[in-house]
Amino acid sequence: MRSRGSLRSRRGGTSHAHGHGVRVRARALEPVSAKTIAPVDRERVKEVARAIASLTVSLPVRAGDVLAVDIAGTGVSVVATKDVDA
């Protein structure tokens, strides 16, 4: 069984970028958990993961908040997957 944080996909050429942390501007014990809302071409997963890791957001963040639109030029948005308070 694959973990939920895996960048691997059961589909042929696409993958969701799950489980990547986004830095926050205020004090927080951990990064904001985030994922893409749609599959990303497998060839672009590393590029998308780097773009997600470079994001910085302000707190508070709520699950479902859009953290980035059109990440790395893919046309796919990135959303927070859990709440993080200041």
Name its key features:
86 residues, mainly beta, 10% helix, elongated
Structure description:
This protein has 86 residues and is mostly beta strands. The chain has 1 helix and 7 strands, in the order ββββαβββ. The protein has one helix at 45-53; strands spanning 14-15, 18-24, 32-36, 40-41, 56-57, 66-68, 78-80. The strands form 2 sheets. Strands 5-2-3-7-6 form a 5-stranded mixed sheet. Strands 1-4 form a two-stranded antiparallel ribbon. β2 and β3 (32-36) form a beta hairpin.
Concise summary:
The protein has 86 residues and is mainly beta. It contains one helix and seven strands, in the order E-E-E-E-H-E-E-E.
Which structural class do the helices and strands define? mainly beta
Radius of gyration: 13 Å
Poorly predicted regions are 1-12
Question: What's the pLDDT, averaged over the residues?
Answer: 79
Beta-strand residue percentage: 25-35%
